[in-house]
Amino acid sequence: MSFIRRIKKGSNTYLALVENKRVGGKVVQRVIKYIGKEIGGEVCRRVNTKDVRVEAVKRYADVLIIDKIAKILELEGLFKEEEGKYILAFVYSHLLERPSIRKLEGWFYDTEIPIILGLQDISTMKLYETLRELSEMDFSNVEEKIFLKLNLYERDKFSVIIDITDTYFEGNTVDEEPRRGKNGKYRRLIQIGLGVTEKHGFPIMMKTYPGNISNLMIFKDLFVNLSQRGFKALIIDREMGSEENIKEVLRAQMEIISGLKKTKGLQKKYLEKIKREDIYSPENRISLKNTSVYIKEFPYLEGKLIAVYNPHLEVIRREIIYDKGGCKDEGRYVGYSFIYHNTELSSKEVVRKYYEKDIIERAFKKLKGILSLRPIRVWRKEYIEGHLRVCYLSYAILSLLEYYLNKKKFGFSALELLEKLKKGYKIYLKDIKSGFSWQTTVLLEKKLYKFFDYLDVVYKNG
């Protein structure tokens, strides 16, 4: 009977397959073959390099990290068992590569996604079915549960930042007339309202609207959802800000920082009272990231209305007006804007919060850029909503990954991390002579291993 024997030679331990045989009345041990060497308690098999063949090379490191964050958020448990696995497969692919849905089935098998998620069979038909199921489900319940998880990391008092963007889609199956988007082009548009936390940019909710709904009306709908969830402070852009909407917020006893459109009524009542030489003075100056502005405040709707003057912007806009043959009166109030608030913050703090609310812009930038929100390349209506929800789930993972990287100051963003992890493959090897198969992983830079350890993710080589 054969068995494995450890043979100690100096500081090394070798493994050999041996058998005991009786020869001349004595038991003699015969080495059948040497298997390999034991290093750190693990067996390193002995193989002839000329007999080794690479069976497969699959993306591994980036999949492991994304899967870990998804597990922290408990995303799979938000859906039915098999449905959840397919939805996560969509989300992982969206974060890593974003191949078209028709190429997705083949792409999956070049990664460890099917093994990690336990997916036995992936078909293009099943992927389309998953998008449709995701479109039809009550997603507000999913958003709420994700936020409850993310809220554990947002310990300080925070405000919700709301913004609206538009994106276009291809195809003719949606009954929607082409409309002029923010980029000036006429396409079939969908408007997307997104709410994120002020501090870490964690997603709170995302809703879609037809291209012909005004931002003022979209805010009313978003506001109902936010007030029901118990949020007490909002920051919104002037496209959503109006006297009516502000009064709605005040009735809900919430705080708000809102831009306001420069209507003729506000110009006449407030801007006509401002002398340029008074506002344009050192005591009214506020330094922002890329410019300086000057302010004057007035009582307004149980709070304060801040008139903001930007001399740099005034010069640029006046030149544009005059180049087009405009008169002096047309440029009278260029460079001025309005911000309303009913908070306990100083006007300078409010202005900084409003103009430096770039966390929502970064969120939309990730959604529209890295997460491929623009353009939507699925054509049928039932797939469009599913695609947007995949983007939302992807952003939830990305925002928490960013949080962990910032917390320990690793020195790179979530997107930069995923780019670095692209080099982390699992390689499947086989000794064609013995039939022995094994796997190894490609080594990464040291700093990346520290992040794996920080998240308690095992990524071994050998």
Salient structural properties:
Transposase Inhibitor Protein From Tn5, Chain A, domain 1, 462 residues, 4-stranded antiparallel β-sheet, alpha+beta, elongated, 16 helices, single chain
Task: Annotate the secondary structure layout.
Layout: E1 2-9, E2 12-23, E3 26-39, E4 42-45, E5 52-59, H1 61-72, H2 81-96, H3 101-108, H4 113-117, H5 124-136, H6 139-150, E6 160-168, E7 179-180, E8 186-187, E9 189-197, E10 203-210, H7 215-228, E11 233-236, H8 243-251, E12 255-260, H9 264-269, H10 276-279, E13 285-287, E14 292-300, E15 303-309, H11 311-323, E16 336-341, H12 347-355, H13 358-370, H14 381-407, H15 414-421, E17 425-431, E18 437-441, H16 446-454
Parallel strand pairs: 6-11, 11-12
Antiparallel strand pairs: 1-2, 2-3, 3-4, 5-17, 6-9, 7-8, 9-10, 12-16, 13-14, 14-15, 15-16, 17-18
